[in-house]
Amino acid sequence: MFPRTLVATLAMAAASTLALAQEQPLRTIREGALDRIELFVEQPPPAAGSVVTIKPFTTDAANLGTGVSGTKEQQQAAQTLRTEAPKELEAAFMKAIASGGLFKGVVRDGTGDIVVEGSFTNMNPGSALNKSDVLGERSVMAVSGTVRDGSGKLLARFEQRRVASTRVLGADAVGKMRQDARNLGEDIAKFLKAWTSGKSLS
Q1: Residue 38 is inside which H or E element, if any?
Q2: How many CB atoms lie within 10 A of CB 72?
Q3: 115 has which bridge partners?
Q4: Which of 39, 48, 150, 169 has the smallest C-beta neighbourhood within 10 Å, fewest atoms?
Q5: Residue 165: pLDDT band by 50, 70, 90 thresholds?
């Protein structure tokens, strides 16, 4: 029994080592096309023959900041954005990917050669700043996500954040944050288009 047990133990250790190795990025880029990009393959699938799928970004684990502890207005803004922000991001992403005809196509929550999915990590309607700051309060929208191929293989991980003033001339927090959600979708699309085209991500 001992040899069999030893073989099984070694096999499990080898599998764990392989899995860990597969999770280590080949390259990490900070403050480039996105705030943080981790690449796990030398080359992504070619854009020309690829259908891109975007899955709905989740908001369950997002830090709502003043959307929980702030004013009634801020709390309402956070609840609205938990529903609206993923839709805004998705629509902007799909429009940007389709623009220029680089990819074979783009679909929502379907089967594709390149699959983008992720979550909102921050949806804070108003971060209190120093009273002397002329920008007043700022909203923060941030996401993290992955890019995989059709088989589920991890190709890349990314993080991106957008910050906007929400207290200048009565600026609308929900409107600003909806726009930032769209900007995030466009940011991710630009990264994907640059990467699959062999352009610099720095």
Answers
A1: strand 36-39
A2: 7
A3: 53, 148
A4: 169
A5: confident
- pLDDT at position 99, please? 96
CA distance 57 to 86: 5
DSSP three-state, residue 134: coil
Burial (CB count <10 Å: 0-12, 13-18, 19+), residue 31: exposed
- Helices within the chain (DSSP H only): 2-22, 66-69, 72-98, 173-196
**What domains does the chain contain, in order, with CATH numbers?**
26-196 (3.30.160.150)
| Nearest of 81, 75, 196, 195 to residue 142 by alpha carbon | 81
Q: Distance between CA 197 and CA 186 in Å, rounded?
A: 16
As a whole number of angstroms, the distance between CA 125 and CA 35 comes to 20
DSSP letter for each residue of 89-117: HHHHHHHHHHTTS-SSEEEESS--SEEEE
What one-character DSSP code corresponds to residue 192? H
| pTM for this predicted structure | 0.85
What is the average per-residue pLDDT within 140-158? Answer: 97
Strands (DSSP E) found in 109-153: 114-127, 138-149
**pLDDT-based confidence at residue 71 (cuts at 50, 70, 90):** confident
For position 140, what pLDDT does the model report? Answer: 93
